[in-house]
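User: Need the bound-state model for F0G:
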Amino acid sequence: MMHHQTLSAWPGVLEFYRPYMTWLPEGASIVTLQEGNTPLIPAPRLAELAGGGFELFLKYEGVNPTASFKDRGMTAAMTQAVIRKAKLVICASTGNTSASAAAYAGRAGLRCVVLLPHGKIALGKLAQARMYGAEIIALRGNFDDALRLVRELGARPDVEVVNSINPVRIEGQKSAAFEICDVLGRAPDFHFLPVGNAGNITAYWKGFNEYHKHGRISILPKMCGFQAAGSAPIVTGKPVTDPQTVATAIRIGNPASWQGASAAVAESGGVIESVTDAEILAAYAQTARLEGLFAEPASTAPVAGLLRMGRQGLIPKGSVVTLTLTGHGLKDPDTAMDQNKIDAVVVEPHLDAVMESLAFS
Ligand code: F0G
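Assistant: Bound-state model below.
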């Protein structure tokens, strides 16, 4: 007799956490790709590298339908766009938001226009926007220019802005904090994540607070956000006019949710700091090699931050630490190939040749 466990279909984050989605009207038809329910994976080797003595879990958001955490908010934004009978959805993006918007808009049957900084979008993200059928406008400018234009376009009632300045995006994204607590059976002591436009840190903090208020968790984590050194307006306290970093996803000089990020850090007793591109790239390789998790460079900014804080003794023994790997490594194949200049060895298809190249006797 074989004993099987039963698997039931995951309905997506809005349906699963519906009691916490008070903005969602009764009977609304939800636009979903069954996003969320992503794995929370123990990462003991990275924890060791950071000095050890604590438990580390990585929330692997790269396995969402469009391979980043953006899908959690996009199910909400697109559901809302349909409810409001929008004719067009638009967003500014460093790549992931545009990929997600394009996919969900296609599913909802809505026209989708994305404004992107020309030449600064990782290859996989551009491929996604094209395949899902978005209309792509490349600006001779950066993300901040794109968001300014989107705010202007979004003043029209038939246009829905699906950036995180749309509050329902935050409502969807807070589900990641719920999932972490549900899986751990408690809140973490620290939560680490990258900060770009600062919507996600705002969303996680809202999620943890709602679970706390409803008695689902008894403590709140310290929120630890990391910006790239060349794009660290919140850390330096002033907007950056020409932000630069290898982590193109967080190449943002004037974050829309600046206030939300500052509040999350201050209220939780956390930190917001910057890490250099060299630290980000080292953490990028280490995350892939030590844990088997390939995440894009922006996602490994908090890994770099954790390695530094751990080694400085800032993570107390016995702590439970969670960290969000926000996007899949395959999003940015160019950076991966640049990091690994060692080409494959090309040999004739004979055992001798393979053995010889291995120097294996
Ligand atoms: N990590 C990845 C992979 C991202 O794509 C982003 C943001 C962030 C982290 C930062 O999140 O903006 O909420 O602080 N990407 C946006 C985009 C800007 O257009 O895809 P945030």
